[in-house]
Amino acid sequence: MTRAQASLLILLGVLLALFWLAPEVPLLGFAAVLLAIALRVPAEWVAAHTGLRRWVAVLALVGGIVLVLGLGGWFAYAPLVDQANQLLVDLPQSLNALRERLGDSGLGGRLAEELEPQKLAERARSLASSAVAAASGTFGALANTVLVLLMGIYMAVQPHAYLRGLRALVDRSLDRPMRAALVEVGATLRGWLLGQGFAMVVTGVLTWLGLLLLGVPLAGVLAVITAVLGFVPYLGPLIAAVPAMLLALTESPSLALYVALLFIAIQNIEGNVLTPLVQARAADLPPVLLLLTQILAGALFGLLGIALAAPAAAAAMVLVRRGYVEGWLDRTVPADGEGEARDEPDQANSESGPAPRPVPARAIR
């Protein structure tokens, strides 16, 4: 075993040990890398058109995002408070009306018993105790979010220092291939982020149009929440549907049902059609591999694994192709359709006899 191969195996062993002992550490680090790329791409555009240094453009972009979010929260605060107060007043009346409608049928009668105020109060107390028990986990998630934000900003301001440190962990002979692999991984992650951003925008627009047509209050704010939470597959749209359904309950229970059906339809379109197709073109990520990776990551690492499964799979495909398929096996991965084009001459020549077996490249050398 050469020193170059040993350095790669040691680096891989350290990474696997981190996933075994503290899986959140590499996952949070990868989330910070995604955030750094998401900040770096528009910052480079701003720097190219304004003459600012890139780190200054990154900080200006972060300041602009914070300002926009602050202004949006300021203008949306008063309507949200009004809707929350109205929800506290109208929700008991809506539940009573729903219970009366369900009481006319056998199955509806059972459901109506479950909607009795006493049973609802008992369940609310049990949910409150569960919420208190989960408060520590919520604070931990908030702390991890702040940590990812800080690391992402640091990496976006000065990315080359971290890339040089990563290349220094392998043998000197691998410096150029390592640099080329990291450049391709960065380009792949940029493509994934662009595809994911497109899917999130489409989801937000569809949600806004649907809620607007249904007459749900604060359709714009709910659409933005849905678009942002769309970054987390499956669970994100479910969380986004809760405030929309609660606001719809202030109008009528039937409107809340229509809102639920709207979110189910949009989730099916986004999760099963839009995202796999967009990611297959933007990041060269096959849809089947994307779904299988999300299932595996969810089973191993939970919600954080599901959220980062797609970009991690895209980056891993680049590293496996460069490091294992092309580097270790000495094989070249053909482009789409290239393998089928090579099969046609072989079939044409099969009538005159079997084609000679190619001499392996290692034998030639």
Structural class, judged by helices and strands? mainly alpha
Q: Radius of gyration, rounded?
A: 26 Å
Largest sheet: none
Q: Portion of residues in helices? A: over 70%
Show unreliable segments: 130-138, 336-365
Strand tally: 0
Total DSSP helices? 14
Mean pLDDT: 76
Strand content: under 5%
Order of helices and strands: HHHHHHHHHHHHHH
Gross morphology:
elongated
Q: Cα distance, first to last residue?
A: 19 Å
Tell me about this structure.
The chain has 365 residues and is mainly α. It has a domain at 174-332. The protein has helices spanning 3-21, 24-50, 54-102, 106-114, 117-133, 135-157, 159-167, 175-214, 219-229, 235-249, 253-282, 287-326, 338-348, 361-364. Helix 2 (24-50) packs across helix 8 (175-214), helix 10 (235-249) packs antiparallel against helix 11 (253-282) and helix 11 packs parallel to helix 12 (287-326). The longest helix is centred in the first third of the chain and has 49 residues, at 54-102. The radius of gyration is 26 Å and the shape is elongated. It starts with a helix and ends with a helix. Mean pLDDT is 76; it is low at 130-138 and 336-365.
